[in-house]
Automatic annotation (TrEMBL):
Gene Ontology BP annotations: G protein-coupled receptor signaling pathway
Region (Disordered): 304-391, 569-590, 605-636
InterPro entries: Gua_nucleotide_exch_fac_Ric8
An MF annotation (GO) of this entry: guanyl-nucleotide exchange factor activity
Name of the protein described by the UniProt record: Guanine nucleotide exchange factor
Biased composition, class Low complexity, residue ranges: 306-322, 334-375
UniProt GO cellular component terms: cytoplasm
Annotated Pfam families: Ric8
Family recorded in the similarity comment: Belongs to the synembryn family.
Keyword match Hydrolase: no
Transmembrane segments: none
PANTHER family: SYNEMBRYN
Residue ranges, compositional bias (Basic and acidic residues): 577-590
Length: 636
């Protein structure tokens, strides 16, 4: 049996197609070793030994580059697909990840630009190599290959979502680690624009395509947002001259990145709800990028809009019908350049059975008032008549984030279910996409975003506090304990006791602490010390803080929670007990006699020594005391 390597060496331009198809489909034995001949029907490109695979890759590249080789122009796409198939194995990617071969693939992508399929396959070969071979990423952006600059140039010209996707994937992999290439991307202009301008334009383009249902728009947006996150994460740290190790994500920033916020917020507000998971890609990737952006003085107008919002502003009770992002079509060939395919968390929008998310949305759309407040609405979808530039110009980022969190909590924890209930973890795992296998991965960044907004703005703190614990919150015993309620407040408090969702628990705790003005007394008063004791203990507050006294400057919610009839442990009202009647002198003497008998028995039985008997000590002290002096009678 001849091998694929031998067959390819013997092939000519007229009969090379069957060999290329066999490499792709793996229908013939491809190992030189005859002992594996029984794998005839299973053998494919993964069964090559290393030398044979590397030799075949070099032959394919040589023939693709040469105009006199075995591969004609019409067979280029097929040959590059075979090359990509061979590169899915780390051994193949090792061969493709050299500076020489990466340069050849870039040249092929440019020379075959009129054949979009062939040009795309060349780029996918590069992406596979960068995914599997880490050192190839630095080689690709080095001056020897200059691949990063080439991809930026292609991305500037591209309007095709499929090409934007693969170029963004390559740039994402090239910027996973900090490098001088990232600094040059931000600080140097290419064709009159920086990478920040480029990303903003592509996000707007892809948003319109996604809302219009253009194929591969969602995948392209996901990967360009991953690339964006790398820029926002690494560039500020690369130019930071301080040696502080205490800075966390979002603490480092550069004004050169300021223009990225408006397009990110446009995407954050315009993306319609997804199904079955309420917070899914690309929305999750937008949130990841947003939490790296500070709420600085220069960006406050972008974060909060031009018109200030009052602390008492509430959302309308009606909820528009959600527009669901449809699932993107999965390509049968290797459309993705890595093992991580496009997210498949979106379900069909016309499902005959109502899932948990549908039930959560129906509850919110019914305008049912929860025990804490009226649920926030889902902001109008971009396809609805209410969506306009005017609406986006006056966007409410805090309301949007809070609504997403409330809908997600209602979806995963309906009614008063415990966060650690197995059904919650099973639902989250079944709906999770790549990189998000739990509620920790999916919802923690959203809570962090809300927390950062509240830290930076007092109005945000007040609004969020009024949404969770309004002044008219029903704290009566008939309404049940705060943590047992089937509303947003109850779900947040139950999350504080979670064992399985550690990061989400800590994030929710920080959010509640921040909206309590970062004050332990305020937090205990609003939510009940028993509900937040564990969180405060982890912050180093070992004992219950002193109860506050209602003051004129305090918020209405705090004054209501600090009322005399509120139990400071539970945060709910308790019945006032009638005062106990004063004991008579005879009752006091009888109680003293009982105590004398009890301690006398303990002493006689040897359980306590005579010196430990408080009754005996009191009698001895009274006997040794000097007699009381009689009072002088001042009356004549």
């Amino acid at each position: 049996m001849s091998t694929l390597l031998q067959r390819y060496n013997a092939a000519s331009s007229t009969d090379v197609q069957p060999v290329l198809n066999d490499i792709i489909n793996g229908t013939l034995i491809s190992l030189i070793n005859p002992e594996t001949a029984h794998l005839r029907d299973l053998a494919g490109p993964f069964t090559f030994d290393q030398p044979a695979r590397a030799e075949l890759i070099q032959l394919l590249l040589k023939d693709l580059k040469s105009s006199k080789g075995r591969i004609s122009v019409k067979d280029s796409a097929l040959a590059l697909l075979a090359l990509k198939t061979l590169g899915k194995n780390p051994t193949g990617s090792e061969a493709l990840g050299t500076a020489q071969n990466l340069s050849i693939l870039l040249e092929l992508s440019a020379s075959l630009k009129d054949d979009s399929e062939a040009s795309g396959e060349a780029l996918r070969c590069i992406a596979n190599a960068l995914l599997l071979i880490e050192r190839a990423r630095l080689v690709f952006v080095s001056k020897e290959v200059n691949g990063g600059e080439t991809c930026i140039g292609l991305l500037q010209k591209s309007t095709n979502p499929d090409q934007i996707f693969i170029l963004s994937r390559i740039l994402f992999l090239s910027t996973v680690h900090a490098s001088p290439f990232i600094i040059s991307l931000v600080e140097e202009k290419r064709n009159g624009s920086t990478v920040v301008d480029l990303i903003g334009g592509k996000l707007d383009l892809l948003l319109n395509n996604l809302l219009s249902g253009v194929k591969m728009s969602k995948e392209a947006m996901v990967d360009i947002l991953k690339f964006t996150f790398n820029i926002l994460l690494h560039y500020p740290k690369s130019i930071d001259t301080s040696s502080s190790d205490k800075k966390v994500i979002g603490d480092n920033w550069s004004p050169k990145l300021d223009p990225i916020l408006p397009p990110l917020l446009r995407v954050f507000h315009a993306l319609p709800p997804t199904s079955p998971a309420p917070v899914a890609a690309p929305l999750t990737h937008v949130i990841h990028s947003l939490i790296t952006v500070p709420v600085s003085a220069s960006l406050r107008a972008e974060w909060f809009g031009s018109s200030p919002r009052s602390s008492g502003s509430s959302s309308p009770k009606s909820v528009p019908v959600p527009v669901v992002i449809p699932p993107s079509p999965r390509r049968t060939d290797s459309s993705s350049s890595s093992r991580t395919h496009s997210p498949t968390r979106s379900g069909t929008p016309t499902s005959p059975r109502a899932g948990p998310l549908d039930r959560a949305l129906s509850v919110l759309s019914a305008g049912r008032r929860s025990l804490s407040r009226s649920p926030s609405p889902i902001p109008p979808s971009p396809g609805s008549p209410r969506h306009s530039n005017k609406v986006l110009g006056d966007r409410d980022t805090l309301l949007r984030a809070h609504t997403l969190l409330e809908v997600a909590f209602s979806h995963y924890m309906p009614d008063a279910i415990e966060p650690d209930d197995p059904s919650v973890r099973e639902l989250a795992k079944s709906e999770a996409g790549p990189g998000a296998e739990s509620l920790d991965d999916e919802l923690s960044p959203l809570v962090v975003l809300i927390t950062r907004l509240c830290i930076a703005d007092e109005t945000c703190r007040t609004r969020t506090r009024d949404w969770l614990v309004p002044a008219d919150l029903d704290r009566s015993a008939n309404a049940g304990s705060l943590e047992s309620r089937s509303d947003m407040l109850g779900r947040c408090l139950r999350m504080l006791g979670s064992v399985y969702h550690v990061r989400l628990k800590d994030s929710v705790g920080e959010m509640l602490y921040v909206i309590s003005d970062s004050d332990a007394t305020t937090m205990s008063t609003l939510f009940g010390y028993g509900n937040v004791a564990g969180f405060l203990f982890n912050k180093g507050i070992m004992n219950a803080p002193p109860p506050p006294t209602p003051a004129a400057g305090s918020s209405a919610a705090l004054n209501a929670a600090a009322a005399d009839n509120i139990n400071p442990i539970t945060g709910t009202a308790q019945e006032q007990r009638a005062p106990e009647p004063e004991m008579t002198q005879e009752e006091k003497e009888r109680e003293m006699e009982k105590l004398f008998v009890v301690f006398d028995r303990l002493e006689r039985s040897g359980n306590i020594s005579p010196s430990q008997n408080p009754i005996r000590n009191a009698i001895q002290k009274a006997a040794s005391a000097p007699p009381a002096q009689p009072k002088d009678d001042d009356d004549d």
